[in-house]
Amino acid sequence: MHHPRRVSLRGHGYFKRLGPGIVTGAADDDPSGIGTYSQVGAAQGLSLLWMAPFLLPLAVGVQESTARLGLVTGKGLGTLIRERFPRWVLIGAVVLLASANTLNIAADLASMGAAVRLLAPVPAGVGVVVFAVMMAAAEVIVPYHRYSRVLRWFALSLVAYVLVLAVVNVDWSKVAARTFVPRFHFDAANMIALTAIAGTTISPYLFFWQASEEVEERDDGPTTPVDRPHLVAMRVDVWTGMFSGVVAMFAIMCTAAVTLGASGPVNIGTAEQAAKALEPLAGSFAKVLFSLGIIGLGLLAVPVLAGSTAYAVAEAFHWNEGLSRRMKDARGFYSVIIGSMVIGLSLVGFGVNPIRALYLSAIFNGVTAPPLILLIVILARSRGVLGEFRSGRVSLVATSIAGIAMTIFPVVALLKS
User: Fold this and answer.
1) Among residues 23, 20, 61, which one has the least CA distance to residue 301?
2) pLDDT the model gives residue 2
3) What is the mean pLDDT of the segment spanning 159-177?
4) What b/e string do you get for 120-143 counting C-beta neighbours within 10 Å, with b at 16 or more?
5) What band does 22 get if pLDDT is binned at 50, 70 and 90?
6) Which of 58, 67, 147, 262 could potentially form a cystine with 402 if both were Cys, beta carbons 3.0 to 4.6 Å apart?
7) With b meaning 16 or more CB within 10 Å and e meaning fewer, what string describes 80-117?
8) What is the pLDDT of residues 36-72, one digit of tens each?
9) Which residues make Cβ contacts (< 8 Å) with residue 94, sequence separation at least 6?
10) Which one of 23-27, 114-118, 350-354, 370-374 scores highest in mean pLDDT?
């Protein structure tokens, strides 16, 4: 059974009917994404812009597969892994996800604290604690669907990176060449950059979140059986979300390359350096614009990170789960959310460089994603799981290439280092 809101692709209010896909796309451009894309653009110039068109169909393939699993079965990814694979596979998947998510939460919180310092002389530690407490409380008390509708507007700050390209001198012929004609360099630094880009675009937390939100995204009214039009609507939802995320990725990398990296490779070490990419558009307000983007998207993405861990753990242990439930009805689920925030917060206390932490978390996501993608491929092609609605060959190829590419990048980086 499926919620009726997204059945039709036509008519007034179409964008209101978009579901988990558009939220997932917005959460994909979290502070880790902004930091990683900025770092790669400043250090590598335009040379890796080809990753945008390369990753788009791969990201869509993976997210479409996870959405299909949740939509057709009415079960989260963790539940399906528990039912179809040995216990050690389930535990391994949950550990990989929880590890990557916790590191990502820590990096995002650290960057949000650094962003606050650009706006006011507030100690970064104070800002980090306030954000962590606020997000944990909001996720427990306020339905995330309502919370996310407000925070999606912060994603508009990403438009600033597109607008910068309209006011600076850009060699568009060179941009087009670097975008559609890949140039491969197999040195360690380049392969690490590819791992980071792929890891922050095709992230493990998005897999579990997408499937679980497909299960939760139901109206209070009567539901209708899943059929082909439902799958088409879901696919458009996923394409819309991931397309918006990859366009933002392209804009940030290109902006950083033509501003921060205009005079040669630059390694971004602070939030202030990263904010300078927006100076051609915003001038002295660049820090404000950058900070609002980091804070707003962090407020959107960190609950997704903590929530995806909670879904996975709850499904692994067969606990009550769901952001639509009250705390007293899903104590274990919400305890994992709060615990994820607390552990992420404690990691910030080690004094890591916020921008560096964002890049490292993206690399870690890139390393942990391939085993999870393999499980998704097996489940999505299983007739026993999806019956007549199992993934087709195009989706299979895209998802498989994503897993293979994300395995090759870190392996080659390790061999070349």
Assistant:
1) 23
2) 47
3) 89
4) eeeebeebbbebbeebbebbbeee
5) low
6) 58
7) bbbeeeeeeebebbbebbbebbbbbbbbbbbbbbbbbb
8) 999 999 999 999 999 999 999 999 999 999 989 998 8
9) 78, 312, 313, 316
10) 370-374
Domain extent, residue 39, equals 4-416
CB 288 within 8 A of CB 303: no
Count: domains in the chain: 1
**367: amino acid identity, one letter:** V
Task: Tally Cβ neighbours within 10 Å of residue 259.
Answer: 23
Q: Please, are residues 68 and 386 in contact by the beta-carbon 8 Å criterion?
A: yes
The Cα 351–Cα 214 span in angstroms is 37
User: Residue 282 maps to which CATH number?
Assistant: 1.10.4160.10
What angle, 0 to 180 degrees and rounded to 10, lies between the N-to-C axes of helices 188-201 and 51-73?
A: 40
Calculated CA dihedral for residues 119, 122, 126, 130, nearest 10 degrees: -40
More confident residue, 219 or 247: 247
Give the C-alpha separation, 115 to 287, whole Å: 8
